[in-house]
Specification:
There is one protein chain. The protein is built from eleven helices and seven strands. By secondary structure, it is an alpha/beta fold. A seven-stranded mixed β-sheet has the order 4-3-2-1-5-6-7, with helices on both faces. β2, α4 and β3 form a beta-alpha-beta unit. α7 packs parallel to α8. The longest helix has 15 residues. It starts with a helix and ends in an 8-residue tail after the last helix. The model has no long low-confidence stretch (mean pLDDT 85).
Amino acid sequence: MVLDLVAEYMVRTRLVGLVDAGFIVKSGRALLGEADISYEGVEIVNWLQTVATRLDMKFLRAYWYDGAYPMSDRKLYDEQRTRFAQLEACPGIQLRLGHLQPRPFDFKPALRAATQEMGISYQELMQHLKLEKLYQQKGVDTLLVLDMLRLVQQNACDALVLMAGDRDLAEAVRTVQQLGATVIVAHPESAPVSDELRDLADERIRWSEDLTRRLTTRFADRLDRLLDAAESARPIEPGGL
């Protein structure tokens, strides 16, 4: 009986992180004012371990959700696979991948109407207009919801740190809370978190600009910057030039 209670306590005090990569990247770019950022897996894991320690829990792992480019778009596919390999090599992170599906360009009627109003040639505009292929994410939210329910139903964890903001996740959050789990919603400041998800959260953690920058910078790079800053601030001794 005592051993059963101890075993249950050990299982039910685990914390898991669920990372919607697309969401935190997009909102992180807006917060930092940078066109291209990339979160460091080891920094996310370290931060989650800090949260687990504060709650007197054990960090189990983080599940990283993203959409994969099709092999037909070789350049983007290869660049993304390099990134995924780095995440896969990071202890404490498990990749969960949906896919990215090409989205048809559906603005032609609006462009045609605009060119008519402006008195310019639609054909000439389309000849000079360079269109980038657009993608839409598929299957990622489904994976996240299924994992959330499975982890709690199987007593694999007692707390979830959800780094996402989509309203479609609200019902899954409500369900795992009814099963006894604590759900913490974490995100960069000013991220577009849905009102329903925000209200459901047992706790919200807003990443400041400084924290977001730390999560997107390797420790070695931050250390180099600190050393360079210290070197620049050091007084110049007589005869030192």
